[in-house]
What does this fold into?
Amino acid sequence: MYVHLTDEIFDTIDPYVRGKRGVDFGAGDLQATQMVTKRLQPAAILAIDKYPARKPLPPPIVFKRALFRDVTCEDVADYRDFAILFWPNICPFIYDGLKGVLGQFTTVIYCGTNFDGTACGWPNLFEYFLSRELLAHVPDQKNSLLVLGNAQANRRSPTPEEDAGIDRSEIKWEAVWV
Ligand SMILES: C[S@@+](CC[C@H](N)C(=O)[O-])C[C@H]1O[C@@H](n2cnc3c(N)ncnc32)[C@H](O)[C@@H]1O
It folds into this structure.
């Protein structure tokens, strides 16, 4: 598991996940999916990853092996309350295709770090985030949380995490010091 799920993060995402149906994009070893399920009791989670799950998981988790580029709006139609992106990879190709699908979700929940010269996500993902309302933000140098809501007409100002995710011209290590 890459993401670090703190009590503060659980408390912040609780209203968007508890009793709701969502997708964990890039679920990896599924540990975070299981932790979220145990703690927040969503009605269902569709966990998607390009690699197979090591073991079958009980409901409400459903696993789908797929590349993001092949995930359709139909695939996520029953799970549109929240989309989880915990520590998404740095890859220029994967997010353009995903944007249309992410647009289906009421809430997008992101955790990652961008302050150390690497990043969790590609600039186009963070540019997309700026087209959505910022519902919650738990800053952390190593594992920031962003919760994104409705699409909005005007691009909002970036959080330090989004700024560091978009502008890779320098290492923004001092942006958040905790
Ligand atoms: C850094 S890991 C994070 C895993 C998990 N979210 C966590 O926090 O532990 C990124 C995950 O995204 C998956 N992934 C990356 N690119 C993908 C793609 N194009 N389609 C599907 N899954 C992808 C990888 O296989 C990997 O499991």
